[in-house]
Amino acid sequence: MSKSVIEVKNLTKEYVMGDNIVRALRGVDLQIGEGEFVAIMGPSGSGKSTFMNMIGCLDRPTSGEYFVNGEPVAAMGDNQLADIRNKYIGFVFQNFQLLSRTSALDNVALPLVYAGKKNRKQIAQAALEKVGLGSRMHHRPNELSGGQQQRVAIARAIVNDPLIILGDEPTGNLDSRTAEEIMMLFQDFNASGKTVIIVTHEEDVARHCKRIIRFKDGKVVLDEPVVNPTDAREALKLLPDPDAALA
Q: Global pTM?
């Protein structure tokens, strides 16, 4: 494997629910190398979302070790975790999580504000152009389709040039054609050297990745390479174009 950008050792996470203890993660050992494209799968309650929160530095484990690009983060405080997220990680969420009264350009520029970067408008514009939304940058989310909103969210995730892109059900609210277009973007970013990790419950989406890690009852039960991953560009050619039908 290439250099590990994510490594967890005996990772556990427990939640106290009244008189009960819920063991969401039960001693997970895992490495994800630089430049990999990984799907995290599993049924509801399997621990996959908890694991995503852990590797995204949105939560801390109950026990175990976690390294992001070699930095030990398991015991870091909130401010330190925020720094790690801003330094290494870009997030794409199922529900987009865009500011409704703010233009696409300003939504994408927001992480640059936290990072204290200059020329924010120019950098944000370049990110929007990468996802094919250069002509829609001054539109607000309610003026964009679901697929366009997800492209804005992806532009926001890549604007700081992160080492890792995390997608939490990134195609869950999209039609088949738009989902393929989004997966094409992820494949392009991965081809450029980015490590891409998505959580999905859709088998056909996972087959676009190069590796599938399956969770059950808080543990990894299967970790396998994908033979002949689906090429999103080729898959798009097989789907009907709704615009052509209206012509």
A: 0.92
